[in-house]
Amino acid sequence: MMELFSYGPLGWGDEILAGLWVTMRLALTTLPVGLLLGFAVAALSLSQIPALRAIGVGYTTLMRGLPEILTLFIVYNGLGLGLNRMMAWIAPDAGPIDFPPFAAGVIALALVFGAFAAEVLRGAFQAVPEGQILAGRAIGMSARKIFWRIKLPLLWRYALPGMGNLWLNLLKDTALVSVIALDDLMRATKVAVGVTKQPFTFYLVACLIYWLMCLLSELVLAQLERRANRGLRRA
Amino acid sequence: MAFFDTLAANLPKLLDGTVTTLALTGLGAAIAAAASPGLALLRANGPLPAQLALRAYISFVRGTPLLAQLFLVFYGSGQFRAELTALGLWGFFRDPFNCAVLVFAVNSCAYQTEILRGGIQAVAVGEIEAARAVGMSRPTILRRVVFPHAYRIAWPALGNEIILLMKASALASIVTVFDLMGRTRQIFSRSFEFSVYFQAAVLYLIITACFVYLWRFAERRMSRHMAAPGRA
Predict the structure, then answer these.
(1) Which of A28, A131, B78, B143 is deepest in the core (most CB within 10 A)?
(2) Does a structural domain hold residue B231?
(3) TM segments (chain A) (predicted)?
(4) Could you count the other beta carbons within 10 Å of the beta carbon of residue A102?
(5) What is the span of the domain harbouring residue B107?
């Protein structure tokens, strides 16, 4: 049993850890990209201009209504087709090439994350009390200073619980990229299953690893929330 | 436009897949809905061992990818083929549709239990005291007071959960179920017709939109007595 998960040529420990590393890199690369997108879409949804608002709301509605796996296939195959069409135009002799799956994974996951994050951020922005902003203006803060010193810290506090859930979802959604030939934790497990013929053992270990990552994330998030709320009086 | 040209050709298969998607979601959600009231009661005020077991179950389901759960059951059952055959269950686990329904039911049940627990705990204490004061028995209180309230409170969240399950049911296509996503991938792999993905996207959005409408309709009916007087 133990030798199955040992390191080296006999065990699968190193392969699974390498897969875990890809999973973590994928999630950690997607997070900032998705957050930036989320901020941009939230800004659109809160815009004074109806056309921009429609784009923001339309984007979040569409992306949140589609299965993540469909988005992933649209991005992976769509970008692949587009890339090959472009390559055929630039260098007709070169054979077909695959769009890098890691990039496709980051783009697809960020598109989904961004849509959900936009809703969380929009809600948080709208929850910032008017009085706080008026107070900032009253003591002569510029709009930029109000954003950095008042809106953003409050936004962090209001958005953190929602963002925490999105992070957990993102961590779990990374498993989907295993179907577009990216060697993440899920796919490393699948390879190990193919050789050892012990599917239950290996998928259970994969599940336990994901579970552990989620539990650790929850601990960190609880800590962050406590820190974000340190200035609040308990009722 | 390529979209409409191919839509007519693809539609029979896509609709066939849509029926499977609805069956997967409906069966999974219904089984979960049948089990969740009892589990939610246990989770809210059952004995400590039961509460701990339920918390572990819910935490595991929420902390692992649905795809991993699906693989654990569909591929993992192969490791116990001899035992399952002896029990007469192998035929069940060999069929990916059954495995998908089982996993979706177990998965959704965890979320529905947690949502319903929130609803049960949000029922006003005064309501229950009033019921006790007029001499209702515990089962009657649950049936007439606690659950009607709990479901009304939990209704929107339960609807969200079913929509999430419907979207997640697309994962069944990875274990070879020909649901809407499975049909879409099949058509794409044969024709490289990229527009089929957009056709599938439209169908998924239509399913969601219909469901949201039906759910809101049911919600309005459930809260008829709370509507402002003079309005339907």
Answers:
(1) B78
(2) no
(3) 20-44, 69-90, 102-125, 146-168, 200-224
(4) 17
(5) 2-224
- Between helix A152-173 and helix B48-63 the angle, nearest 10°, is 90
Of all residues in chain B, the one with the smallest CA distance to A172 is B65
| Whether A204 and B75 lie within 8 Å, measured CB to CB | no
Q: How far apart are CA A94 and CA A96, in angstroms?
A: 7
Least Cα separation, residue B71 to chain A (angstroms) = 7
**Interface predicted TM-score (ipTM):** 0.90
- Hey, what are A233's tokens? 């009086």
Sign for the CA dihedral angle at A156, A37, A125, B119 comes to negative
What's the CATH number for A28-185? 1.10.3720.10
Residues 6 or more apart whose CB falls under 8 angstroms from that of B43 comprise: B51, B54, B55, B58, B113, B114, B117
Residues in chain A within 8 Å Cβ distance of B75: 193, 199-200, 203
pLDDT in tens, A100-111: 889 999 999 999
Please name the amino acid found at residue A111: L
CA distance B3 to chain A (A): 15
Q: What is the mean pLDDT of chain B?
A: 92
CB atoms within 10 A of CB B130: 13
Q: Is the pLDDT of residue B232 over 50?
A: no
pTM as predicted: 0.91
Other CB atoms within a 10 A radius of the CB of residue A67 amount to: 25
The enclosing domain of B32 has a CATH number of 1.10.3720.10
**Quick check: is B230 in a domain?**
no
Q: Is the alpha carbon torsion for A186, B69, A1, B90 positive or negative?
A: negative
pLDDT digits (tens, 9 = 90+) for A105-161: 999 999 999 999 999 999 999 999 999 999 999 999 999 999 999 998 899 999 999
Determine the pLDDT at residue A37: 97
How many domains are contained in chain B?
Answer: 1
- A175 residue type, one letter: A
**Who's near B198: CB < 8 A, 6+ residues apart?**
A74, B3
Q: How far apart are CA B198 and CA B180, in angstroms?
A: 12
A8 vs A14: CA distance, rounded Å: 7
Closest chain B CA to residue A211: B63
Residue with tokens 């003079």: B230
The CA–CA distances, whole Å, from B118 to B30, B41, B121, B123 equal 19, 10, 5, 9
Q: Would you kindly state where each structural domain of chain A is located, as residue ranges?
A: 28-185
